[in-house]
Design goal:
By secondary structure, this protein is of the alpha/beta class. The protein has seven helices and seven strands, in the order H-H-H-E-E-H-E-E-H-E-H-H-E-E.
């Protein structure tokens, strides 16, 4: 698919969103955001919040997790630092970072969480591979993400709407097939754990991907059809 999102444009767009982001998107994605944090809390340990934004989800975590947050937008991070400063001891670090080129060693985190991030970057599959690389064996990538149609009238609409979506800083045409293809080609033995539609209107989903708790050169473990996967 043609790359239609520019990283410099993303920085500018979300810098402009920063003053009003919580007001505009807070309630809309609250249920999904809380579902991501609840899933991360079940795993616990070191959590990377990729695309932490204004830090709107940071207060939902408990001391079961030690959270590092990164974002491309300094304006967004300034809001996150205001939320965390002296009030959220589970937040270890907030810093500028690019999800397509993470500045962390392999196997650094028990969880990588990303809310409405993967379909906003220039190269989504590269971001997913970076998430997988820094994830410990047995850990989870937990996303709230746009999942578009693979065919039909909705697919056509999403393609036609894409030029408008670009100006807002995200992709409307992001079908499940892109995640499925990534799973089939990933170098990090990833599998789907859960896919659950979330508000608003089921156009977004909670997605959980698990990294095999085996050596990278070991055979991929067999998974029963449908095991652990929500519709």
């Amino acid at each position: 698919m043609k790359n239609e999102i520019d990283i410099n444009a993303v920085q500018k767009i979300y810098g402009a969103w920063a003053p009003v982001y919580d007001l505009v998107f807070g309630a809309v994605f609250e249920r999904g955001r809380k579902a991501v944090v609840a899933a991360a809390e079940r795993v616990g340990g070191r959590v990377l919040e990729a695309g932490v934004g204004t830090g709107i989800a940071l207060p939902y975590y408990t001391d079961r997790c030690r959270v590092t947050g990164i974002d491309l937008s300094e304006e967004m991070l300034a809001k996150a630092r205001q939320k965390a400063d002296g009030k959220l001891p589970h937040v270890e670090k907030l810093a500028i970072g690019d999800v397509e080129n993470l500045d962390f060693p392999d196997d650094s985190f028990d969880v990588v969480a990303a809310v409405c991030v993967v379909n906003t970057v220039p190269h989504p599959e590269l971001a997913l591979e970076e998430f997988s690389r820094v994830l410990k064996p047995g850990g989870e990538i937990i996303l709230l993400n746009r999942v578009g149609a693979d065919a039909g009238a909705q697919y056509v609409f999403e393609r036609l709407f894409q030029p408008v979506a670009n100006r807002l800083g995200w992709r409307s045409d992001f079908p499940w097939g892109r995640f499925s293809q990534w799973l089939d080609t990933s170098r990090h033995q990833m599998r789907l754990v859960e896919r659950r539609p979330m508000p608003p209107f089921g156009h977004f989903s909670l997605l959980r991907f698990g990294k095999a708790a085996v050596h990278a050169n070991s055979p991929r473990p067999a998974v029963a059809a449908g095991a652990g996967v929500a519709p």
